[in-house]
Amino acid sequence: MGMVVAWVLLSATTVVQARDWMYAKTANFEVYTNAPKVDARILVARLERFRSTFLQILPGAPFHQPRTTVYIFDDERDFRPYKPLYQGKPMDIAGVFRGFPDEVVIAMAASGELDRVIPTIYHEFIHLLMHARGYRLPPWLNEGIAEFYETMEFSGDEVLVGKHNPLHITQLTRGRMMPLAKLFAVTHGSPDYNESSRMGMFYAQSWAFVHYCLTADRKGRKRGEGFNELLAYLQLGYSAEESVQRAFGMSAAELEADLGAYVRGGRYTVGRYNIPGAIDPKSIGFQKADDFARDVALTNLKWRIHQNGSALLELRQWVARNPESPRPHEIIATLLNYDGERLRSMQSLEEAAKLGSENPYVYAKLAEDSLRQYLSGVRPSFRLPPEASAELRAWLDRAVQLAPNYTDAWDWLALTEAFSAKPRPAMVQTLQEKRMVFGNRPRLLAGFSLLALRIDQKTFAEHLADSLLATPSVMKRPTARSGVRMQGVKNQNSRNWMQRAEYYPEVRGIAQAVKRELAPKDPDAKKPARGEYRPAEVVIEFIEE
Ligand SMILES: [Zn+2]
After folding, report:
1. Is residue 28 situated within a structural domain?
2. Which of 114, 124, 222, 501 counts the most CB atoms within 10 A of its CB?
């Protein structure tokens, strides 16, 4: 019955769907297209090539990229119903990128002016990759990096990096640069920050800053020296001024003068790398898309772009059409979460999990939300009820099985083990290996601090707690403005999800609780280490009883 209604209702959107849609799965993308295979292959090969090159130029720890679906429409007319709207009309753009924690969509028209749109896709993709790697950088650096790398060009094995965007040069030449203190203070709520018009002085100067850091000749320094350190200090939550001082050995005022001279000099070096890795488009194998998967995929795209309309209704129809598929439930969960319906969203995630969803986000998100209920005001002696432990472990084990580099899932696993009646020795061992790979992530360290306490390694437990309490990002609290932009609140700009700050109240709470537990009776007996972040390389071992 429901299916009949569905087909009548959807007749308007089946125009595009009537034509042959092809599907491909590459290393990092799922692709749906109704364009000639050759066009689609070239575009996907370009995205893969960009991704691998960017990651080689800016290397880092392994990470998990959210599920990324690429839609390649044959022409503008097919793309039109999915385009973002401006004043109620489809925008005049050839492509769009939208990121959500569970899934990212990229849509393009193969016949469009792709050279105009590709840098924008690269730009947003850079935000995604930096976020997936765990970076939570301030807007000026986030945008500077994206602006710097979005102009990347390829020719065979040769890669050109750092070509300028003429709009930035015009802006920097004609306008007045803002003082660095002002640039550093720009937040996502500032008028200077507006992702939809990437032309202002804020973007130009952020670009120039990164260009200067990576390509300028500075006295006694190698090109690019200090940039990774800058990222690391900002990541730990140090202020921009402090991070500049620590990374470059100069004050922000000195850097400001240097940057001013660099921009006035007007000479921007382009980096030429030799990085093999071009992907043969022919190696991308397309097959005819399954009707159901294609219909769900197109509903998904429409919702990700417009966030309104008939998506929920359509998705419910897709559930009725194929009750065994977890896919509509995954999308319904995100839609409900976006509408502020947190509880119903979790129910949909559970449904997707029961049906065997292969998106690791489903399991990590279920575990995170469940675990967070326990973690406020928690004491080190707290133990999860056995059923809760079992459920959390099942979800998180599945998440890391699907995505072995899913750092968030490992974080929550560490906390789950720490609060379980019996930590699993093999898992604790694995977590220590992961800590070596992924670095010192606050939640992972908080988990280890508790685990150390449990086996009476007091010095190590306290040391970790001290390190966490000395980490600015752990101590940071949301300000009134940033507090408004919480996940799952209606009408926020979804693109900002990738640029939002992250807070660690549960880590702070755990570290403080560990300290209280270990507080010496004699207050002079021990002086806590303060002011520097330096987790020790101690290995702790849980022996099977
Ligand atoms: Zn951006």
Report:
1. yes
2. 124
Cβ atoms of 412 and 441 within 8 Å: the answer is no
Highest average pLDDT, of 161-170, 171-180, 198-207, 415-424, comes from 415-424
Summarize pLDDT for 424-481 with one digit per residue, the tens: 999 999 999 999 999 889 999 999 999 999 999 999 999 999 999 999 999 999 875 5
Ligand 1: centre distance to CA 120 (Å): 9
Note whether 66 and 124 are within 8 A (CB): no
**What is the DSSP track for 147-212?**
HHHTT-EEETTEEEE-PPPHHHHHHHHHS-PPPHHHHHH--TTSTT--TT-TTSHHHHHHHHHHHH
Query: What is the distance in A from the centroid of ligand 1 to the CA of 499?
Result: 8
**Residue 70 C-alpha to ligand 1 middle, in angstroms?**
19
Longest dimension (CA), the chain: 78
pLDDT at 484 over 50: no
How many angstroms is it from 112 CA to the middle of ligand 1? 22
Q: How many other C-beta atoms are found inside a 10 Å radius of the C-beta of residue 266?
A: 10
- Distance from the CA of 47 to the center of ligand 1, in angstroms? 17
Tell me how many domains the chain contains: 1
Query: 88 CA distance to ligand 1 centroid (A)?
Result: 24
Is residue 378 included in any domain, yes or no?
A: no
* Residue numbers of the domain that contains 109: 1-135
| 366-408 pLDDT tens trace | 999 999 999 888 899 999 999 999 999 999 999 999 999 999 9
Nearest to 86 by CA among 222, 9, 227, 197: 197
CA of 316 to the centre of ligand 1 (A): 34
pTM, 2 dp? 0.88
How far apart are the CA of 190 and the centre of ligand 1, in A? 14
